[in-house]
Write a structure and sequence with these properties.
The protein has one domain. The protein has 3 helices and 2 strands. The relative contact order is 0.18. Keywords: Transferase.
Length: 81
Amino acid sequence: MPSNIDAVTAEWLSDGLGARVRGLRSERIAQDSGRELTFYRDVAGRAPLPTPSAYTARIAGADFVLVLEDLAGIDALEVFA
């Protein structure tokens, strides 16, 4: 389990996704006890609003990794139209 954002490597991600990853761009977007992980793993599929897909969600003690779909190119207002 990676203990920081720099430890999330293509090799680790390949194992987590079950598919070969040749490169990645990572960004820390939250520091929490894993509530986001629990939401995306257990609740997001039933939420009334669209949410990004969670490709992998893992937790070990206080450390967690949540890999989400990149929604950077989506216009949030179109989701509600």
